[in-house]
Amino acid sequence: MESGGLDHLKDGAPSSIPNNIFLVGLMGAGKTTVGKLLAKRFNKSFFDTDHEIERRTGVNIPVIFEIEGEAGFRAREHAILQELTKRNNIVLATGGGVVLSKANRDILAQNGTVIYLRAVAADLLQRTRYDKNRPLLQTADPLAKLNALYLERDPLYREVAHLIIDTSKQSVRVLVQQIEQELAKL
User: Fold this and answer.
1) Is 92 helix (H, G, I), strand (E, B) or coil?
2) C-alpha dist (Å) from residue 121 to 2, 92, 149, 150, 154
């Protein structure tokens, strides 16, 4: 891919912006919020795998976990990922556990530029502490759960990522600017 930060398209987005951008990271890292702004900035369609699953099933993620278990949810997630990554000119926010499957990591890496939005567990807890739509955090010690998830998933996010962006202490607008600058370097 050519970089050319000074070469702009009519809409103002650099021509070096990849066709598809896929965001990975733990719950609360900002994938949906950042993804919507990136899509608007680069004139792309935005999708969120979790929202698509909820829209198509008519129930929220905790209900799917309750009825089908995590394995049933992961099967749905894989099918949605296969479908959405075949589209063009999208920004896709993925569920935090999408990287647990080698097949999913391969799909992401082969169909777009993957950006890992990284945040530490304490920051993630601050962002998710009141969100009851996070089945994996419905536990007595959500910080311990986030730390465990980070230890398990961080190497997988790093494996698939073309870019790693720390989201800890930055505004969303600054993150979008930083991502745009980093994409121009690819």
Assistant:
1) strand
2) 35, 23, 9, 7, 11
| CA distances in angstroms from 144 to 55, 112, 135, 140, listed in the order given | 31, 32, 14, 9
| pLDDT tens readout for residues 157-171 | 999 999 999 987 778
Report the alpha-carbon distance of residue 186 to residue 184 in Å, rounded.
6
Which CATH architecture group holds 21-179? 3-Layer(aba) Sandwich (3.40)
Q: Rounded to two decimals, what is the model's pTM?
A: 0.86
Angle value at C-alpha 81, between 78 and 82, nearest 5 degrees: 85
**Domain spans in the chain, listed from the N-terminal domain onward:** 21-179
Q: Is the pLDDT of residue 155 over 50?
A: yes
Cβ neighbours of residue 137 under 8 Å, at least 6 residues apart? 27, 128, 131, 145, 146
